Amino acid sequence: VQLQACGGGLVQAGGSLRLSCAASGRAFSNNAMGWFRQAPGKEREFVAAINWNGGTTLYSASVKGRFTISRDRVKNTVFLQMNSLKPEDTAVYYCAASIGSKTTDYTGDYRKWGQGTLVTVSS
Fold first, then answer.
1. Secondary structure string (H, E, C) spanning 49-81
2. Distance between the two ends of the chain, CA-based, in angstroms?
3. Across the 123 residues of the chain, what is the mean pLDDT of every consecutive 10-residue run?
4. Nearest CA to 59 among 117, 13, 103?
5. Which residues face 10 on adjacent strands?
6. Phi-psi bin for 63: left (phi > 0), alpha (psi -120 to 50), beta?
7. Who's near 15: CB < 8 A, 6+ residues apart?
């Protein structure tokens, strides 16, 4: 069972990136999914979450209005569209599957984590 995140890269401030997270080996269609990030020297922080059917989303205050989380349950993939990127968005971004079906920003609710994908925003 793996969560494979991709789509990171180097972008200028104000630009956009779209991250993807594909699940293999097990379907997470009934689980909420989330994105977290960890900047150098900082703790991992919540970014966004989406419930099992995509009907409810949750965002951190720092990305609300700029980032959009979505999912394709058939393809078992979660996306994070990031617009108006800022240098402070620079971090390794991780996708994760929650143990439940509802959105949550609590790290402890996420039991399956993917490897990270690096996003670097230059000023």
1. EECCCCCCEEECCCCECCEEEEEECCCCEEEEE
2. 37
3. 92 98 85 96 97 97 98 94 98 96 97 95 96
4. 103
5. 120
6. alpha
7. 85, 121
